[in-house]
Amino acid sequence: MSQAIGKAQQDARYVVAARVHGGMIERLARGYEADPELRRDLVQDIHAALWRSFAIFAGQCAEKSWVHRIAHNVAVTHMMTGRRRRRVPLVGLEEIDTLPGDDDPEHATADRTLSERLLGAIHQLKPADRQVMLLYLEDLTAGEIGEVTGLSAGAVAVRIHRLKALLAEPYAPEEKSA
Fold first, then answer.
1. How far apart are CA 57 and CA 27, in angstroms?
2. CATH for 1-88, options being 1.20.120.1200, 2.60.40.10, 1.10.1740.10, 1.10.260.40
């Protein structure tokens, strides 16, 4: 009988978490998966993992951090599995300057918005950098991001600063030499 109560509590916790954090899960999936069909699969996988995780969640951290951690772990696994199949190269902070720019005709189209270009750049980041940037875009603090990723708040702040500077670089106005 206690197992039925446990399942009922698990279901109830999941329903509330899915309602509260559903938008974040959708945005996160968009940050990890560009293909709409695969994105839907990823969202379903995240929700399934989240439901399963509430069987063991005992309040060891904030529920928000727990949901982000589960969602990002599932998304990273999804991304790495898909990358092996598609052979899409990922770049780190050191190589981000090699991302296609506006002058690359294969990647620059007239109707592409700034947010789509930014998301495209984020899709090319390695999992750890992508996770930090997506959490930052969800308005989590450095401390909250550290709780999800296992990094210190200081390391998160430095990584965010570097990522923001590197992602903004292609959009900065060119300096004219006098």
1. 23
2. 1.10.1740.10
